[in-house]
């Protein structure tokens, strides 16, 4: 019963045909790079060439479908969704594209006849790591779902020359190296010079008298940037649609610069302008932190301006001129989603273009913007809420600032004043401009004021957005704030990354679960079935054996697949509390030293995390984990009952290896801090049991699997708030809990860093002098109890198997197809093109 109803048009391509196509690229496109003698077959150079030839052959098929999709989308005249995101974490594309086209098996066969293993070749591809973490990966999952559901969608972003840095460890410290994902080009991208855009920046605004006596603002730009688009095809699963991810590369517009050069002193006045090529050079490696410098600001503006122009020209190509008279049609045909506040400037750019280039009245332009835009909020953390200084705006985008002022004025005078007459405090709170020594633009305010819908990414997060972040906006517009719970694509996060489990599921589920993930719930009755349990857990074991080998290769550490594989994989951040996990590891280690015969199931704690290069404490947590791991892994007294592994360079392709092998999923953020989380969904889908707080989507996961199949611990959101009001004193826990005290004092010694006492003290300090902002000490005991209960549960093999199976069976809600359908029904109002 495998691959029911697969109707891919590409499915008719045979292994023989694929082999020919691959050979064609080996012989012609790649020239003489392949060495044919058998002895050289498996050299890295050859494998790269075969990977490339396979990818090129596949991309040819994909491009045919891309053209056909464009024709179909034009014919059906469907509304499009334009997803604006500064980040896309696509990972590798070969395996995923093959699965989505139902060509995996035939390509495997074709390559086998050429002497290569497809799974092995897939490892040759570089990850497209054009994002930091959850927000970027969500964008990638959404693109997959949009194409799968046959929606007309375009992703817009930046064609970074360097994606997220590569991480390695040197004596336990994180080292960052540049990511070179396309040093010699990528077989998946197509350059589209015909859609190049010119983007003005800097300069000044001039008031120009019109013939009727009125004044209009004219922007005299100081520099011109050129945006060159690269398209990456996005292949739907078992669908007719291939959409595109359009990434803008920034180049200098030399013609313009020659022109300004002739103006002599004018150029001199702008000698400090950023260099065009640097704009798309590198992804800012900060996760949930507002970096706040000019280059980042220009990145945001650059890609928004290119995208807005492109959206308008695509519209005009299909539907004719955009004028005030046709503006209603534009709103019926175009939706734009802002992935957090990073693309907020798109709002001002659309306004500017409509006003200055299409002669729209203010009223018409503003109405149109409201219909077209919607905004997703991904965090409540204050340090991540973007604010740009008014002076930077004035310097880089003087015309946009005048538009922003007018939006703000109308909002304060009309809407705020109507609701709260003559209320200065309310005006100050809701104004897009934050007054102060340095005046700032609150980007989230602009998004909320303009958009017709604003959503959070999990129910509790959306509730907090309404209650705590934007209560006044919610009062003004009760219908505007809403929820769309995040999701993940089951294609990458089960079908492609866990082939053994996928095959088992397909044998027992009638429907195509990779499309209709809810159908997995039909497995629930099998959760108690001894034979099914055996098969399910045998696969988990096999995946653990594979990860064991990977761990050995990457770190040299020996671990046993009999141990519990306890996984925490995500960006390193205090609010995610990797240091709570670490503190518990120290406590376990102490307990084992005190009683080496302590009955416990051996455990391997597996970490994967990158720290932002400028985030000192995060880097110290990585260092401490590596040092503690070194000591524990080499301590023979504890008889391998405890191992700690920090896998370097965590990224999508590594996640695909860890997740199928995980027994336990650590989702232990301070309640109220993790907007949703999506790793929690991926791990549970692959049969890992969650230990987690009542935060983000954990709450919804618990609702789906039931309290018996998840380990919940810790303070709730309300308890965290109450503690803050009462006054939280971390010293209380240090002084009254001997285990906490002993573990923290341990960090001051040289036990883990021989001869260098104090190297790990900053973590202890953050808990005590630092005030423990994320309540690690307050949650420690409850976490430790939950871990204890989890260890006991694991030893009951039948109970554990049942829990694992039910986690896989009951993740249907978290299919990103469901998230997309929620957006479609409540925010975008699209219809499929097919
Ligand atoms: N998130 Br804001 C990021 O990964 N980066 C960001 O800059 C911001 C949010 C994450 C949230 O932390 C996570 O909880 C959520 O699941 C994810 O976005 C997708 O919504």
From TrEMBL:
Catalytic activity reported: [(1->4)-alpha-D-glucosyl](n) + phosphate = [(1->4)-alpha-D-glucosyl](n-1) + alpha-D-glucose 1-phosphate
PROSITE patterns found in the cross-reference section: PHOSPHORYLASE (PS00102)
Glycosyltransferase among keywords: yes
GO BP field: glycogen catabolic process
EC number: 2.4.1.1
Annotated GO CC locations: cytoplasm
NCBIfam families the UniProt entry points to: P_ylase (TIGR02093)
Catalytic EC class: transferase
Name assigned to this protein: Alpha-1,4 glucan phosphorylase
Residues recorded with modification N6-(pyridoxal phosphate)lysine: 682
Any one Gene Ontology molecular-function term assigned to this protein's record: glycogen phosphorylase activity
């Amino acid at each position: 019963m495998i691959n029911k109803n697969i109707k891919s048009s590409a499915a008719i391509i045979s292994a023989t045909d694929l082999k020919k196509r691959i050979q064609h690229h080996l012989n012609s496109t790649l020239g003489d790079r392949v060495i044919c003698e058998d002895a050289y077959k498996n050299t890295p150079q050859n494998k790269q060439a075969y990977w490339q030839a396979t990818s090129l052959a596949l991309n040819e098929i994909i491009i045919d479908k891309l053209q056909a999709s464009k024709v179909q989308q034009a014919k059906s005249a469907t509304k499009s969704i334009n997803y604006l995101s500064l980040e896309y974490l696509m990972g590798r594309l070969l395996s995923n594209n093959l699965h989505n086209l139902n060509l995996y098996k035939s390509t495997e066969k074709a390559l086998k006849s050429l002497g290569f293993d497809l799974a092995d070749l897939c490892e040759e591809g570089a990850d497209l790591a054009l994002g930091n973490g959850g927000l970027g990966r969500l964008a990638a999952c959404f693109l997959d779902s949009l194409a799968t559901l046959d929606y007309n969608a375009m992703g817009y972003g930046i064609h970074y020359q360097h994606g997220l840095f590569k991480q390695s460890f040197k004596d336990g410290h994180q080292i960052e190296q540049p990511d070179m994902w396309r040093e010699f080009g990528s077989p998946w991208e197509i350059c589209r010079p015909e859609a190049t855009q010119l983007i003005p920046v800097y300069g000044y605004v001039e008031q120009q008298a019109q013939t009727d006596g009125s004044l209009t603002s004219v922007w005299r730009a100081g520099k011109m940037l050129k945006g060159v688009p690269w398209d990456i095809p996005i292949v739907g699963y078992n669908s007719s649609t291939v959409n595109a991810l359009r990434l803008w590369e920034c180049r200098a517009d030399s013609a313009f610069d020659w022109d300004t050069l002739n103006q002599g002193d004018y150029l001199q006045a702008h000698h400090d302008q950023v260099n065009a090529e640097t704009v798309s050079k590198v992804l800012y490696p900060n996760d949930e932190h507002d970096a706040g410098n000019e280059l980042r600001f220009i990145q945001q503006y650059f890609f928004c301006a290119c995208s807005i122009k492109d959206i308008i020209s695509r519209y005009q190509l299909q539907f004719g001129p955009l004028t005030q008279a046709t503006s209603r049609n534009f709103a019926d045909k175009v939706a734009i989603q802002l992935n957090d506040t990073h693309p907020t400037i798109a709002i001002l750019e659309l306004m500017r273009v409509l006003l200055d280039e299409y002669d729209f009245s203010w009223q018409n332009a503003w109405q149109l913007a409201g219909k077209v835009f919607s905004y997703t909020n991904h965090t409540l953390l204050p340090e991540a809420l973007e604010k740009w200084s008014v002076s930077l705006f004035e310097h880089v985008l003087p015309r946009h600032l005048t538009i922003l002022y007018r939006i703000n004025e109308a909002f304060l005078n009309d809407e705020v004043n109507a609701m709260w007459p003559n209320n200065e405090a309310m005006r100050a709170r809701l104004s897009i401009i934050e007054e102060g020594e340095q005046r700032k633009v609150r980007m989230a305010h602009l998004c909320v004021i303009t958009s017709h819908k604003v959503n959070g990414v999990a129910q509790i997060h959306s509730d907090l957005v309404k209650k705590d972040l934007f209560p006044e906006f919610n009062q003004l517009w009760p219908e505007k704030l809403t929820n769309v719970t995040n999701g993940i694509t089951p294609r990458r996060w089960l079908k492609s990354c866990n082939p053994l489990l996928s095959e088992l599921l397909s044998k027992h589920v009638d429907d195509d679960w990779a499309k209709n993930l809810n159908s997995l719930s039909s497995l629930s009755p099998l959760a108690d079935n001894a034979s099914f349990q055996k098969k399910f857990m045998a696969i988990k074991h096999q995946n653990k054996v594979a990860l064991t080998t990977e761990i050995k290769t990457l770190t040299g550490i020996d671990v046993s697949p009999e141990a519990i594989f306890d996984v925490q994989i995500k960006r390193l951040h205090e609010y995610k509390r990797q240091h709570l996990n670490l503190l518990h590891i120290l406590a376990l280690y102490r307990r084992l030293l005190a009683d080496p015969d302590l009955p416990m199931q051996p455990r391997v704690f597996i970490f994967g995390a990158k720290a932002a290069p400028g985030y000192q404490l995060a880097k110290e947590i990585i260092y401490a984990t590596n040092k503690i791991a070194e000591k524990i892994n080499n301590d023979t007294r504890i008889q391998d009952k405890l191992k700690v592994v920090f896998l370097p360079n965590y990224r999508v392709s590594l996640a695909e290896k860890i997740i199928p092998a995980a027994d336990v999923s650590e989702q232990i953020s301070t309640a109220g801090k993790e907007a949703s989380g999506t790793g929690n969904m991926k791990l549970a889908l692959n049969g890992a049991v969650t230990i987690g707080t009542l935060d983000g989507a954990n709450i919804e996961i618990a609702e789906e699997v039931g309290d018996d199949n998840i380990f919940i611990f810790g303070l709730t959101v309300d308890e965290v708030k109450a503690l803050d009001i009462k006054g939280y004193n971390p010293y209380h826990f240090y002084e009254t809990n001997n285990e906490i005290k002993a573990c923290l004092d341990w960090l001051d010694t040289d036990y883990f860093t021989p001869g260098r006492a104090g190297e790990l003290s900053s973590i202890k300090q953050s808990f005590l002098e630092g005030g423990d902002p994320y309540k690690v000490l307050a949650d420690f005991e409850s976490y430790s109890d939950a871990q204890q209960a989890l260890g006991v549960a694991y030893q009951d093999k039948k109970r554990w198997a049942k829990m694992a199976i039910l986690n896989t069976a009951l993740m249907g809600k978290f299919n990103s197809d469901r998230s997309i359908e929620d957006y479609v029904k409540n925010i975008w109002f699209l219809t499929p093109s097919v």
